[in-house]
């Protein structure tokens, strides 16, 4: 039996045409590849359009701006990391003790942020991406803190633990102050253990 079809509602977005979806995928694929090969600062919209086999106007029509396209690239990498948190192998993924998961979370979040620091900067202050990414990591850290029976204001404790993992903080420590990532990760773990111990 064929499922019923419903008429679209007035406020529903128009369905995406196949060629438009194909162009979007081609542009995003080209952007992912070129950013990985050259870094976000070296890649131009012309490079991406040529690699995707579309006109530059198509790139702007699909993503609005260079920052919008860099945000889409960043969202893709963020989604891969989030998938590892949700269902990847332990200790980052399920199956490990909450403390082990929290420590793995901090270390991989730091590595992810530093690896994509230029991309985060190129994406600019795109509120949607920032809110979505922050909501995910905040909920995850709160969940782990609750599993660890942490007392106190868990949402604010989670925020305090997440602040050192922001790109602006990490870049200052690594690029300006010359701190090693190992030292930063060890210090973060020390703070986590102090919070958990109460």
UniProtKB/TrEMBL annotation:
Keywords: DNA-binding
DNA-binding region: 44-63
Keyword Nucleotide-binding annotated: no
UniProt xrefs under PROSITE patterns: HTH_TETR_2
Database matches in Gene3D superfamilies: Tetracycline Repressor, domain 2
A matching Pfam family: TetR_N
Molecular-function annotations in GO: DNA-binding transcription factor activity; transcription cis-regulatory region binding
Domain HTH tetR-type: 21-81
PANTHER family the record matches: HTH-TYPE TRANSCRIPTIONAL REGULATOR RUTR, POSSIBLE TRANSCRIPTIONAL REGULATORY PROTEIN (PROBABLY TETR-FAMILY)
Protein name: AcrR family transcriptional regulator
Organism of derivation: Nocardioides daedukensis
């Amino acid at each position: 039996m064929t499922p019923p079809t419903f008429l679209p509602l007035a406020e529903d977005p128009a369905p995406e045409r196949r060629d438009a979806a194909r162009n979007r995928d081609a542009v995003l694929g080209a952007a992912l590849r070129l950013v990985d090969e050259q870094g976000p600062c070296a890649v131009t919209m012309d490079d991406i359009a040529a690699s995707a086999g579309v006109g530059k106007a198509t790139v702007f029509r699909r993503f609005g701006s260079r920052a919008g396209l860099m945000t889409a690239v960043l969202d893709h990498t963020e989604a891969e990391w989030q998938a590892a948190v949700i269902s990847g192998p332990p200790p980052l993924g399920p199956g490990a003790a909450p403390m082990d998961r929290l420590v793995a979370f901090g270390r991989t979040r730091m590595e992810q942020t530093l690896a994509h620091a230029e991309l985060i900067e190129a994406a600019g202050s795109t509120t949607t991406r920032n809110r979505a990414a922050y909501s995910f990591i905040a909920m995850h850290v709160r969940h782990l803190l609750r599993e660890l029976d942490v007392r106190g204001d868990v949402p604010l404790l989670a925020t305090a633990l997440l602040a050192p993992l922001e790109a602006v903080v990490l870049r200052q420590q690594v690029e300006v102050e010359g701190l090693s990532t190992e030292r930063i990760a060890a210090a973060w773990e020390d703070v986590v253990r102090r919070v958990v111990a109460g």
